[in-house]
Sequence to fold (363 residues):
Amino acid sequence: MKYLTPDYYPHFHCKISQCRTDCCTGWPVSFSISEYFRLLSVECSPEIRRKLDIALHLTEHPTEDDYAMLLHSYTGNCPLRLSDGRCGLQADAGENALPAVCRLYPRGIRKGECSCANSCEAVVELLARAEPIRFVILDLETEYPPDTRIHFFETAGREMEIRLWLIHFMQDRRFSLGHRLAMMGTALRDMDEALSAKDHRRVEELLNEPWQIAPPPLKGDAFPIVRRMLELLKSDSMQDYAEMALDNFSAEKYKGKDAADEKLRQAEPNWESWFENLLVNHMFFSQFPFQDRPVSLKDETEALYAVYAMLRFLTIGAGNGDKEKTTDAIAALFRLVDHTAFDRYAVPVLHKIGADPRALLTI
Ligand code: SF4
Fold:
């Protein structure tokens, strides 16, 4: 079947034992009723059988898609994970024995498109390059049905064109990332008005006429806003990095933008194209701005501003100029952003702080 994918997609490989923050640790694995009964009877060794019988539990409120889960050991590790990082169930009974979430992660398969989540360390490393992401059509075999959409937006039937049009703004390297986001935000506001008015001629115009509007000046101070957001947004995966960054910024370790950028350059000389690729990949993976939740396009934009600001804050403040630490801080941030309804509660948090979301772009 043909899928639109980012060009790194065929090059993704799990790092298994080389992975510093593996997805088998600290993350509950839940699966459907059919997968549960398949795991109850899967052919495997007595050792794996014993571990499965101990770890398999029904979820608190079982539904057909979210029926049971694998309870982790007291170390937070999946009890089926072997010491060499491989999955014991897969090693014993083959890939087909695995629940979909274990087989697919970090891949996301949607109707006609596939991509990977930034919450996976290997994906974050693949995106650390000078070249922008290109989107290509690939012929892919997958027996997994694409995720079915629950929430629908008015898109004049041009959803993918609109999404790639917005990504185009993020890849315009004549401008800084903050200015690109500001321009993308203005463009999406105009598109939102045209879509809400069902003005298809205006939609056509926006998609095909060169963008004439210059980037707006960025003003305000992002640091106090991000600091407050990190204090309010509790996330197990991100907490350590948030505390490290908050401490370092309180100690005024990275005074001024130049010193901050220098820290990032030490970690990755192409840090700006790396961050561009991370934001573009997140936009594609999450189907920005049409995420499968009833969130306004304006709130989706402001949530993306928050992602950018937290990305800069955590990588400068907790990456400390080290490539691995910076990569780990990024993957931790996207565990929160890509796998929770972050876009839904980011803006209420900003309102609670009384912050102007555009100030986030000054970071
Ligand atoms: S986080 Fe990515 S690289 Fe690490 S174990 Fe999971 S899939 Fe593999």
Summary: Residues 14-15, 19, 22-23, 105-106, 120-122 surround iron/sulfur cluster (CB under 6 Å). DSSP finds 15 helices and seven strands in the chain.
